[in-house]
C-alpha cells in the first residue's frame, strides 16, 4: 500500500507530465493506491497545497538549490515541492520527517543518486524557514505572481481591471478554501426545514450572505451519506451558478433549453424556478453525462427535465424559435474557480485564444432557438473580459433583435444593466459572468 506522500507525488507527476486535472487524478490515485482516512486527507492537502503555492515554493527552493528546478530530472522538482510544502505549511509534520520522507521518495522513484541533493536542499530550507528570501517588491506584477502563485500573464491582465489592492484580495481568495455550498430544493423542503434536518445529522449550517436558498456546510463527512442528500433535499452548487435561473427570470410553465447542461445544476435550478411545471431540455455531447443528469433529476424529484445528446454549436432546425429561455453556460477557461481547482491557474495564455471563437459560435447558434419575446442567458465561470462581456458585446452588435435586459438581484448587487461579473473577494461566490438578453422580434 502506498503512503500519503507517495500517492501525492504520483498525482503531481501525472498533472505535470500528462496534463491531468488534480481533482480527477487525485480521486483515481487514492483509489488505485488504497489510501483512505487520515492518509487520504494528508495526500489531498499536499496535492492542493503544492498546486496553490507552487511558484512561491519554487522561489524559496531556488535559493537553496544549485540547479534550476525545471532542469532537474523528473520527478525531483515535485519531490522537493512536496517536502517544502510540509516544512512551511504543515505544523503537525516534523521537519525531519518531511526531509527523510522526501529522501525516501527520491529512492523509491529511482532517483537515489539525487537523494543527497534532496536532503541538503530541504534541510537548508528547514534551517532558514524563519528567514526566507524575500520577493523583490519593485516589480509589482512579479511580486504578486510569486507571492500568490498565479501566472504573470494573469496578474498583468487583471491588474488594470481590479487595481493593486483588490487584485491582491482576489489572489488571496483564490488560495483560500472555498466553502461547501448547497442549493436547497424548494420542490421538497424549505431553508428552515433543511437546516434543521442537516443539523440533526451533526452538520454545521450557515445561510449564504446574500444568495437566496444557498447554505454553507461544514462537518458533512461523506456528503452522499446524509439523509438530506439521499432524499434530494439539496444539490451541491456554488451561489454564482444558482443565480442563473434568478437572473434569467424563469417562470413556471416555460420551455427552457440548456444547451451545455452537464452536470445539470442550471437545468435543475430552472426546474426549481418553474416549480417543476413546464419543460427543460438538457443537452450535452456525451451520453454518460446525460445519464448522470437523469439520475440526479430522479433524486431531486424533478420530472420536467428531458435530455438530448446535442452539440451546442450545431443547428437543430426543429428547435428554432421554440424556447422561452435558452441557457448557454459556455465552455471557458475556468479562471473564476481557481479556489476550487487550483491547477486551473497554470493554463497557458496561448491555450485560451480559441475560446472566445468557440463561445461566440455556441451563442450564435443558441440564439436561433429563442422564441420572439424570449430570453437568452450567456454565462461562464471565468472573469476574463475576452470570454465574457466582449463575447456578449460582439453578439449584440451583430444581432439588433436582441438587447440586454436589466436585472435586479438581492443586495449587495442590486440593479444590473443585464450583465454581471461576480468575484470571490466581492460577492462570496465563484468568479462568474452572467448576461441576460431579450429577443425583441
Kindly list the characteristics that best describe this protein.
globular; 16 helices; 4 domains; 441 residues; N-utilizing Substance Protein B Homolog, Chain A; Alpha-Beta Plaits; eight-stranded mixed β-sheet; four-stranded antiparallel β-sheet; alpha/beta
Low-confidence stretches: none
The assigned structural class equals: alpha/beta
CATH architecture of the largest domain: 3-Layer(aba) Sandwich
Order of helices and strands: HHHHHHHHEHEEHEHEHEHEEHEHEEEEHE
CATH topology name of the largest domain, in short, is Rossmann fold
Instruction: Give the CATH superfamily of the largest domain.
Output: Vaccinia Virus protein VP39
How far apart, in Å, are the first and last alpha carbons?
A: 65 Å
Number of strands: 14
**In angstroms, what is the radius of gyration?**
24 Å
Number of domains: 4
Determine the strand fraction and express it as a percent band: 15-25%
Question: Can you count the helices?
Answer: 16
What can you tell me about this protein's structure?
It is a single chain. The mean pLDDT is 95. The protein has 441 residues and is an alpha/beta fold. The protein is globular and about 70 Å long. The protein folds into 4 domains: 4-127, N-utilizing Substance Protein B Homolog, Chain A (Orthogonal Bundle); 140-174, no CATH class; 180-236, 2-Layer Sandwich (Alpha-Beta Plaits); 240-439, 3-Layer(aba) Sandwich (Rossmann fold), CATH 3.40.50.150. It is built from 16 helices and 14 strands. The N and C termini lie far apart (65 Å).
Amino acid at each position: 500500500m502506498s503512503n500519503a506522500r507517495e500517492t501525492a507525488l504520483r498525482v503531481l507527476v501525472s498533472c505535470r507530465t500528462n496534463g491531468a486535472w488534480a481533482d480527477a487524478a487525485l480521486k483515481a490515485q487514492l483509489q488505485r493506491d488504497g489510501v483512505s482516512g487520515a492518509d487520504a486527507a494528508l495526500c489531498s492537502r499536499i496535492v492542493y497545497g503544492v498546486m496553490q503555492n507552487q511558484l512561491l515554493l519554487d522561489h524559496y527552493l531556488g535559493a537553496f538549490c544549485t540547479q534550476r528546478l525545471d532542469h532537474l530530472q523528473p520527478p525531483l522538482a515535485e519531490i522537493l515541492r512536496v517536502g517544502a510544502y510540509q516544512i512551511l505549511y504543515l505544523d503537525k509534520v516534523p521537519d525531519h520527517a518531511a526531509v527523510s520522507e522526501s529522501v525516501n521518495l527520491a529512492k523509491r522513484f529511482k532517483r537515489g543518486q539525487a537523494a543527497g541533493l534532496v536532503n541538503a536542499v530541504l534541510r537548508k530550507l528547514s534551517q532558514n524557514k524563519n528567514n526566507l528570501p524575500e520577493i523583490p517588491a519593485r516589480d509589482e506584477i512579479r511580486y504578486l505572481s510569486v507571492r500568490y502563485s498565479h501566472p504573470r500573464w494573469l496578474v498583468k491582465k487583471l491588474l488594470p481591471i481590479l487595481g493593486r489592492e483588490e487584485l491582491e484580495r482576489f489572489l488571496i481568495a483564490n488560495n483560500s478554501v472555498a466553502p461547501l455550498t448547497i442549493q436547497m430544493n424548494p420542490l421538497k423542503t424549505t431553508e428552515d426545514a433543511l437546516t434543521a434536518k442537516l443539523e440533526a445529522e451533526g452538520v454545521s449550517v450557515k445561510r449564504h450572505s446574500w444568495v437566496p436558498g444557498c447554505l454553507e456546510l461544514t462537518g458533512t463527512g461523506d456528503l452522499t451519506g446524509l439523509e438530506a442528500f439521499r432524499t434530494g433535499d439539496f444539490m451541491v452548487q456554488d451561489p454564482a451558478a444558482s443565480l442563473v435561473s434568478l437572473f434569467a427570470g424563469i417562470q413556471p410553465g416555460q420551455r427552457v433549453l440548456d444547451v451545455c447542461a452537464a452536470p445539470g445544476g442550471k437545468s435543475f435550478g430552472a426546474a426549481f424556478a418553474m416549480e417543476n411545471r413546464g419543460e427543460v431540455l438538457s443537452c450535452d455531447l456525451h451520453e454518460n453525462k446525460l445519464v448522470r443528469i437523469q439520475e440526479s433529476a430522479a433524486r431531486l424529484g424533478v420530472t420536467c427535465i428531458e435530455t438530448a445528446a446535442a452539440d451546442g454549436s450545431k443547428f437543430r432546425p426543429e428547435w428554432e424559435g421554440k424556447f422561452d429561455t435558452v441557457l448557454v453556460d459556455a465552455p471557458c477557461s475556468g479562471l473564476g474557480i481557481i479556489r476550487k481547482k487550483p491547477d486551473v491557474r497554470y493554463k497557458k495564455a496561448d491555450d485560451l485564444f480559441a475560446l472566445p471563437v468557440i463561445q461566440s459560435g455556441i451563442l450564435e447558434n443558441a440564439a436561433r432557438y429563442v422564441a420572439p419575446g424570449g430570453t437568452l442567458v450567456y454565462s461562464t465561470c471565468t472573469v476574463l473580459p475576452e470570454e465574457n462581456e466582449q463575447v456578449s458585446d460582439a453578439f449584440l452588435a451583430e444581432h439588433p433583435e436582441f438587447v440586454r435586459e436589466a436585472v435586479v438581484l438581492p443586495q449587495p448587487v442590486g440593479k444590473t444593466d443585464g450583465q454581471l461579473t461576480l468575484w470571490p473577494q466581492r460577492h462570496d461566490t465563484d468568479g462568474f459572468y452572467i448576461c441576460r438578453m431579450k429577443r425583441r422580434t
